[in-house]
Structures are given as structure tokens and as C-alpha cells.
């Protein structure tokens, strides 16, 4: 059976949005334009870098729009002139106004990286990892004016490994979401698709990450600290102060260890790990870290360059 081809208007900006864009480009549907947030300076040189979706679009000779204001008449006129059948949104990063949602003939749908109604908002993957959830997933939903509150068209569930970081989970969900989205778009091309309203009473929110969340409170349980290390990647990263210098923690695990001090006390520092007491009867084994101004390194590499004595205290500030 030949699936009718839809004209797709794509809204997406970061790396998470790339697999879905690539899937649509490789499908029977036509991506007529990609809308991305404006390019921004990055890195130490503060050079302006094209967004990931813009790079993909230009490589496939797809027009790119990067409006500063979504309600500008000139932008809306250009979108209306495209004659798009459907809008697809994946981590665009801004709320779309009603006037824009009404332009595509079939409306707009969104690839959201959580099992809605849980974790509406800007950082669903990070919050799921920080909270120690055992599973997450992707929901394809219809875009409405209220944040991530539209009816659901499809969902897929994925487990979260106990050592997986937000970066790991995002990579998996980006590809799972691309596959699920393409399935939904194919179904929409053939006719109406069943939509399930969300239970708003079960909604939880996933606010944007803040630098203030970076500093580790060693009085927290070891599992909580471990989850923060996993969930605050790639930014702002969990951090601690060791002998006056700030260190970012990249990889940890929870262990049982003989207790010789209170929270934040180094219990052992040898071989391939630094073991630090937490706020409960467990400890955090630091396997990979990054001293301020230096590259990430294993604990063994770190300890080869300096000696850390048991009883040393790691602090939040």
C-alpha cells in the first residue's frame, strides 16, 4: 500500500531533534522547511555555530527559518505560503502561539521525551534520571497552547539503566522517538488517528536545570547523589570542592564501605576510585571526575597526579 505523502513543517533545534528530522527526510513525506532557534555563540571562542537541525537541513537543501519572534507577520506569511499539511515539533525550545498552530492542515504534533502526563516541561529526561526512575519513554502528542498538555497519539516505554546518564537516555529516546513519530505520521497520512486525552490530575513538571543544582550536598543518601551525577549531564554537571578546587563528577556508583567519618569524608582513595561517605549508610565511589580547568579523567589518573588522604572532606562550596 502506498502511503500518501504529506508536506511537513519541522520545528526543532538541538541534537535530540536530529534523528526525527533525518527519519522524515528519508521517508515518503516532504520536509518543506525547518524552523530552528537562532544560531548562538558556543565554546571558549564564542564563535556562532549553526544549530544541529540547521546543519542537517542545509545538507539536504531544505530551507531554514530562524525567527526571533514567532508572531511576526512576515514569518507567519512565509509559513502559511508553504501549504504544509502537518507540523512536527521536537525540542524546538519555545511555546508556539495559536496563530502558528492553526496553519498546517492537520495541526501540529510533538515528540516529547517522557511518558506524559509525567514530566511536562523543559527537562523531562534529566528529571527522570535525577529522580531515579526505572523507566521513561516518548509520547507523541498534539500540540496545544498549554505546555505539553495535548492529547496523546502514541507512546513507547524504555528502561533507564542504573548507571545511565541523561546523555545516554537522551540518545536512546531521540532514536525511539524518531521511529515512533514516523509511524504516527504515516497513520495520519492515511486518515484520522485516535487521540487520548491526558489525565491532568497526574501531571508532574520538569523545570529547566539550574547552575544552583550543581553543588553536591553530601548529607544526601548515596543513591540520590549518584542520580544527580547521572542526571546533571552534560550541564551543569554535579560538582564538589576537593582541597580548595572545584571538581565535576562524571561517573559514580553506590557502594557499601567501612564507615570512618561523616558525610563528605573520603573513606578511601586508591586504585581506580575515590570512596566518599554519604548521608546514609552507603558511600559514593567516584570513578571519573574533572578538576576545574582540566580534562575529564579516571580516578586512577587523578590519583596518579596527587595524593588524597582518607579523612579529607569534600564540600559543597
Biggest sheet descriptor? 7 strands, mixed
User: What is the CATH domain class of the largest domain?
Assistant: Alpha Beta
**Content of β-strand:** 25-35%
Provide the domain count. Answer: 2
The total beta strand count reads 16
Average pLDDT, rounded to a whole number, is 96
Radius of gyration: 23 Å
Structural notes for this entry:
By secondary structure, this protein is α+β, with helices and mostly antiparallel strands. The chain has 2 domains: 7-202, Rossmann fold (3-Layer(aba) Sandwich), CATH 3.40.50.170; 211-315, Roll (Methionyl-tRNA Fmet Formyltransferase, Chain A, domain 2). The chain contains 8 helices and 16 strands. The protein has helices at 18-25, 52-59, 73-81, 98-101, 124-130, 166-190, 222-231, 299-305, and strands at 7-12, 30-35, 40-42, 47-49, 64-65, 86-90, 108-112, 135-142, 152-159, 238-242, 245-255, 266-270, 273-277, 283-291, 297-298, 314-315. The chain has a 7-stranded mixed beta sheet with strand order 5-2-1-6-7-8-9. The N and C termini lie far apart (63 Å). The model has no long low-confidence stretch (mean pLDDT 96).
